[in-house]
Nif-specific regulatory protein
Amino acid sequence: MKHDATGGDALSLISIYEISKILGSSLDLEKTLHDVLNLLSSYLQMRRGIIALRQEKGGPARVVAASGLSRQSLKNGLCLFPPQVIDRVIGSGVPMVVGNAVTDSAFEEYLPHADAEAGDAVSVIAVPIKINGESRGMLSIEREWETEVRFKFESDVRFLTMVANLVGQTMRLHDTVASDRELLMAEKVKLEKRLREEVDAAQEELAIGNIIGDSAAMRRVFAEIQQVAPTRSTVLLRGESGTGKELIARAVHYLSPRSDKPFIKVNCAALPETLLESELFGHEKGAFTGATQERKGRFEQASGGTLFLDEIGEISASFQAKLLRVLQEGEFERVGGNKTIRVDVRLVCATNKNLEEAVAKGDFRADLYYRINVVPVFLPPLRDRKDDIPNLVRHFLTRFNQENDRSIDIAADAMQVFQSCYFPGNVRELENCVNRVATMTRGEVIHHIDLPCQRDLCLSSVLWRHRTPDDRPVGGLGAAPPEPRRERYAVGGGGGGGAAMPAPSVPVSMPARAVAADPGRHEDDEEDLSILDDDYEGSGGLTPRERLVAAMEKAGWVQAKAARLLGLTPRQIGYALKKHNIEVKRL
């Protein structure tokens, strides 16, 4: 190589510029160091160059880049550069020049693998790589030893030292980035741990009282209760019979600021109108036969606390007007009295009836409906929270064992049958089924064969088998599962909870929109619905009602879309829904 002063200096500046661009182009340090060596090979005509780095102070140095060798080859140990030379340069922190490495025993094993041919004279120039004054690595090159410049390596050493300084600055930046990344990762781990703890704490808080429910549907209910409980708003609990409305009403009370005040409950369907009025408002002495003394009503007893009116949809029209005044004005008179009594009561109501349909038919006052339907909370039926069934079964079985001094357990096959049941009676029906099965089980473990449904003794399935679409049983039970063809049964009936079959997505007693009769309906609408019956043979055995429900499910309970699927008009769909007693689900 010729060391022309002018050309050499210009080439050095260009090389330094290109090296600085390479070092700043990537966060992959080893890759950029390989690229630096490739550039140096074209500038200094070197045979091979290496860069070795010491990751920790006092730790071993490792060759991280070598021209002519891949990164995988380095990992496989194919670079035989003498480690004692690396340690010497790094340890001393000063450059080292070996004029003719062929005569140096330290390079005896390395040079034959460094593209050195027999008879060649090879020079080795090595400089330390420093970070903040500390020697952390070594940059070394080997090139042909030219006799006329054998002792003129000063310019090469100066140039390599500048390159080593750039590499050192890059390593310092990488160390800083790595340190910051470690801090960020540690902070991320802390935040994730704290978030998990907060989520777990929130989930524990959502597990209200003794209400068993870990499914997504119940957690939504718990979240709503947590939000509404601290307020004074009237709550209307909607849901089928047996879904736990009274437990939720108690949770609303005990999570409210009124928790230290009375929680009074009244079942409006259990009393006739005359007794219900006396029960709620109280009576004066002599107000009627048998009224031998003054008596406070439930409103007075609940003053400052919470009054739970269950089955609010069953009260008569005349009593609805009396109740409306109390809710609006907060005052009433006892039966047989004329003294106005004012109370401060938080009202929680519950019903399994479709109040919207009752309002449309005139069976329930619209003004009272708006008064109690301030914050509606819909409780999911058990078929929509099947993940909770195992915990519920174990809870009821544990309570049965405690009450009856037994130690009965349940097998996995029996639990699977429980989870496949329809349970129109919801949690109450499940509890009765568990108690019945536990009572009749002779062994210590309940197996699937012990369940009544496995022996065609499920009374619930018998009840629903005799039900027609127009039947409306008292008590607000869920809709019956559609009667399938025999081969569509999965594992038989569910233990006291209806046939064990795929539960259809039929909206039940969780009213969203009342399907009212269209006053403009044509007389031939019913005849136009014959298309549902005409295709019955080619519809996979589905009844017209099942076909209608399937179309509504597919259309997302949008009547216009379902009409297009069935080739009907929206008006005909509305009439068909009413005819088959299908309540429209709100999504």
Residues 280 and 298 are 5 Å apart (CA to CA). The radius of gyration is 42 Å. Confidence is low (pLDDT under 50) at residues 1-7, 483-525.
